[in-house]
Amino acid sequence: MALSGKIIFAALVIAGAVIFAFNVKVERNNQELVIKDSESGRIYGSWHVEDGGEFVIEYVHSVNQSPVRETFLIEENIIRLLNMRFYSFGAGIEAVLEEGQELIRDGDAMLITGFDRSFRELRYIVGTVSDHLLFINDDVYSLRDLCGRNARVTIGLR
After folding, report:
1. Closest C-alpha among 44, 47, 45 to residue 32
2. What is the Cα–Cα distance from 42 to 152, expressed in whole angstroms?
3. Contact 59/144 with Cβ under 8 angstroms?
4. Total tally of structural domains belonging to the chain
5. What is the residue range of 134's domain?
6. Alpha helix (H) ranges present in 35-109?
7. In what helix (H) or strand (E) does residue 122 lie, and over which residues does it extend?
8. pTM, to two decimals
9. What percent of the chain has pLDDT over 90?
10. Residue 155 CB: number of other CB atoms within 10 A?
C-alpha cells in the first residue's frame, strides 16, 4: 500500500472512531427517565435526562409518617442513589451505616450520604393517603395525579 493509501486508510479509521464516539455521547444525552405501570408497561410519563443529572423522589414514610427524600444520579445508563433525607427512623430507613456512609444532621432532618447502590430501575407503590412526588428538571410531579393511587410503578431509563 502506498504512503498516500496508508494516510487515507488511517484518516478513515480515525473518522470512524470519532463518529462512533460522537454517537455514544449522543445516546447518553438522549436518554429519558420513564415512569410506567409495573404490570402493563403503560407509560405514564417520560423526561429527558442528561448523564450526570439528578432527580428526587419524595414521599411520606408509611410507618413513621414523616417525609423521606431520596436523591438519585443518572450515570452511564444507571440510576445511583446519592443520599436519603428523613426525619425519623422506621422500617426501611437505614439504621446502621455501611462503610463509606455518613449521617449528617440537617436541622430537624437527618441526611445519609455515601451510598454505593445502583439500579436499573426503581419500584414504588404510589401512596393512597400520601403522595409520591418526582422532582426533575426544575419541575415537580405528583405521582398520584400522574399514575393514580396505589399504582405499582417502575422508574427506569431508556
Report:
1. 47
2. 11
3. no
4. 2
5. 32-157
6. none
7. strand 121-125
8. 0.78
9. 66
10. 23
